[in-house]
Specification:
285 residues, mainly alpha, 2 domains, 0% strand, disordered C terminus, binds zinc ion, transmembrane helix, DNA-binding, RNA_pol_sigma_r3/r4-like, RNA_pol_sigma70_r2
Length: 285
């Protein structure tokens, strides 16, 4: 029986976790495909994938600590290591443009759909409701404010807060567990720094990231999540990501479901106006 080379051992002191060989092989394949898309030399591809696999060994995977986004985290880590390697070699010019960066894999897109639904389902009802009306049913601010009996200014502020809450919850769900208390404390502050350039925790988080490669990977993962959350909030995206019965499940899809029944077609699209601009942040009182 041939056994693939197992990743090198975890840091001294930590008990060696049992390696699930199936998962190990799957991750190795995924990582190799991603690293090759950066056009690295085969030896570098192997190094990068090995490094990412070793980092995965340090993510607790049992019980409550099991990361729900294990594979996405691995993909993000491989990409991050590839970018890092090209930078270290002074080959920045070979980095793909942001919009040409090896994109989401199929399983990441699937993951995003599931996550968007989970985040929406867990939001407070009023915040979810205004996101659904605006982003999924495609209603205008004046329609929504009329329905809610509030000023369009108040409606705009409400939508702004709901979008921010969505983004925050989406990114926060990408914080992986760690057995290290110091890392856990820093990760608790990391969402804030990933979402805001003026976060008061910026220095603490940056200093820790410099000396902790696991938290550096974690931070790269949060930045990936931030982009995914932003793309989910782009015009039309939330409607596409939640298409297929999700709203009925939540019991909040009355309008869309009724419209579909009325015309006897499942292909009714929410009324979407791509040219609309998003409301600006409310002025401070
Ligand atoms: Zn750390």
């Amino acid at each position: 029986m041939s056994t693939p080379p197992a990743p090198s051992s975890p840091p001294s002191g930590a008990p060696a976790p049992a390696v699930d060989l199936d998962r190990y092989r799957t991750l190795r394949r995924r990582g190799t495909a991603i690293a090759r898309s950066f056009r690295l030399a085969e030896a570098d591809v192997e190094d990068v994938v090995q490094d990412a696999l070793v980092r995965m060994l340090r993510v607790p995977t049992d019980g409550d600590g099991a990361p729900r986004r294990y594979e996405s985290y691995f993909d993000s880590t491989v990409r991050h290591l590839c970018i890092d390697l090209l930078r270290k070699r002074g080959r920045e010019t070979e980095l793909p443009e942001p919009d040409e960066m090896p994109g989401q894999s199929r399983s990441e897109r699937h993951e995003q759909r599931i996550l968007v639904r989970q985040v929406l389902a867990a939001m407070p009802a009023s915040a979810r409701s205004i996101l659904v009306k605006s982003h999924i049913e495609g209603r205008s601010l004046s329609e929504i404010s009329g329905e809610l009996g509030i000023s369009s200014n108040a409606c705009s502020a409400m939508l702004y807060r709901a979008r921010r809450a969505f983004r925050d919850r989406y990114v926060r769900s990408h914080v992986l567990p760690t057995d290290d208390e110091r890392c856990a404390a820093v990760r608790a502050l990391m969402v804030d720094t990933a979402l805001s350039t003026s976060s008061e925790h910026e220095v603490v988080v940056r200093n820790h990231r410099r000396s902790c490669e696991d938290c550096e990977s974690q931070y790269a993962f949060l930045l990936t999540a931030r982009s995914a959350a932003a793309s989910a909030l782009a015009p039309g995206a939330l409607a596409a990501l939640t298409a297929g019965g999700f709203l009925a499940f939540l019991g909040i899809g009355g309008v869309v479901a009724t419209a579909r029944r009325r015309v006897g077609s499942s292909r009714v699209r929410p009324r979407w106006r791509p040219s609309r601009s998003w409301p600006s942040p409310p002025r401070s009182p």
